[in-house]
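Request: Mind sharing a record?
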Amino acid sequence: MNRYRTRALAALLMVGALFVSTACSAGLGGPASSRAARDGVIRFTFAPDPIWDYMRDEGIIKDFEKENGISIETSATWDEFGLFAGGHADIISSASFEVPGLEEETERETVIIGRYNSERSRLLVRAGDPARSLADLKGKRLGVFTSVSGTLVWHALVEKMHGLSVTGKDADFKIVVADIQNLSNLLARGEIDACICYPDLSARELRQGSVRALYGGKSSAQLFADLKAPGHDGPMGNVFVARKDWVDKHPKEVGAFLDLWSRGLREWREHRDEIIERYPQHFAVESPQDVRFMKDYVAERDWVVQDVRFDRKWAEAESGIFDLMRETGVIGDDVQDPKFLPTAGERQ
């Protein structure tokens, strides 16, 4: 647990799979670009996302390209990692806490240029379970979609709050790795006792009241803020990560990309219900009841940030997740914080 290497690679691949059915990334379309980086072009690789789909379908992206003289080459793939490692993508997404692993595995210097959404997983138990925290479930079956990725954030939080280990050979729980889309159903059926679950993949069980969230329904990001960074909205489940050499040579393209996503986040705030209803597949909901539930849930607990841009103060707070992970032994002291590019207030 003291290094990022194999663990980080597995995490990045698992996160790519997660994007298939969640609102974490961007649905793009088109084959992977094999061309080299060049001026006036942004090679953007992401996985399906309702905000991007909405901007594409409404003609916002096309109009933006025409107005700015910048073309966005998009690639739809769950293997963002592979395209980035192969030099075929200028910008991809990653959880902020996985960026050091991305750098180590690709041997490419990176920089975080923007933010998108917070790490939104919750700890769920069955509705009738009297547990008030994970400490009450020591020795019980804990369902996770992977032993890495966001589970490591929960390991750090639980270690800090309760002195218990979620993962590793000395784990205080019986870890059950299962399909992320089925975790809340396994919980409701009694096959596991708790799960690290995503609310948009647990809509039916949450709506029916067969499961409930511990810690007052707070996400891992909210608990981190309570512990280490009051008022902060991270750690991020998705940030926009670019190759540093590309960023240094293409400031116009970086600014345009952030402007476009600023527009996207504004469209999300203004048309959120319409987007959820229009693209329910991105929220893992299908029935009208679950669509209505998701609209209400997101309205109260939206994990999409207000602004893609950030300032230095925000970056320093976001780096606090690495301090917590070092403090709790999740990563080694030699793991460096990722690099950030604060641009808040420069171009709107």
